[in-house]
Write a structure and sequence with these properties.
- By secondary structure, this protein is of the alpha/beta class.
- It is 44% helix and 19% strand.
- The protein folds into 2 domains: 2-64, no CATH class; 75-266, Vaccinia Virus protein VP39 (Rossmann fold, 3-Layer(aba) Sandwich), CATH 3.40.50.
- The protein has 11 helices and 10 strands.
- It has a 7-stranded mixed beta sheet with strand order 6-2-1-7-8-10-9. A 3-stranded antiparallel beta sheet has the order 3-5-4.
- Helix 6 links the parallel strand 1 and strand 2 (129-135).
- Helix 3 packs across helix 4 (54-64) and helix 5 packs across helix 6.
Length: 280
Amino acid sequence: MENFALKQLTQMVYEYCGLNYQTNSASLETKIAGRLQQLHVSVWEYIRLLEQSTAEWDVLVELLTINETYFYREDKQLAVYQNEVLPELIAQNPDRALEVWSAACSSGEEPYSLAITTIDSGLCPPQKVAIKGTDINKKVLQAAASGIYNKQSLSFRRIPDRWLKHYFIEQSDTFRVIEPVKSMVAFEQLNLLDPFKMGNLRQQYDVIFCRNVLIYFDLETIKKVASYFYQALKGGGYLFLGHAENISTMGIGFQTMSKNGTFYYRKESADGQANWCNDR
């Protein structure tokens, strides 16, 4: 009976956030064991709790999601953003701020890295670029919004010394992101599989970063999320995924771009021009 309940729970998790435990229910069982013990409930009783409580979904998400991230991650992509994408978009849109979305941003290292890269470019004042960081996990978003990171954290494993010196304030056992960087980023909880919220994002962003997230989804879910991203981008906008994530053959409509040893994607501009820049 409990095995059947666990199977139902794997389906609920899959439908809610795209994490697929259907062929590895033992892993899900291990991850929730402590929570079930804490609540003194069976799997069936936990399912009923999830059906009644959105707050419990937040707890479950914290147990299941992986929050591996750090500053200056995938620096080749940051270089393409700074040297190729940002100059192009600023030139094309001189009269408005650019909108950048860091999806599944975890504890904030990626959106803050994008803000620092933007300032570093010297191409525009900070207020010219608005960055939104989203994640399904409320707890990590609270940490992200604080802009404070423990000195011993792995968040700093790849950060250039110059970044640490110029864009952080050293405190007793932490580093705090400086205010000009922090003010560029706003955080918000968002489930990438929420059909209402994702479906309402239409031509809102100029650039989307969602790196090392799709690797946890099956092909059907990857295509669904990538299609949401396509819809959310303005014409001529760019999508950056993790180096192991490839949507080139899914027929979504993106053009695959290559520069500086990295791949990324472009939505055709409103006038239908491709503006290809493959290793130009």
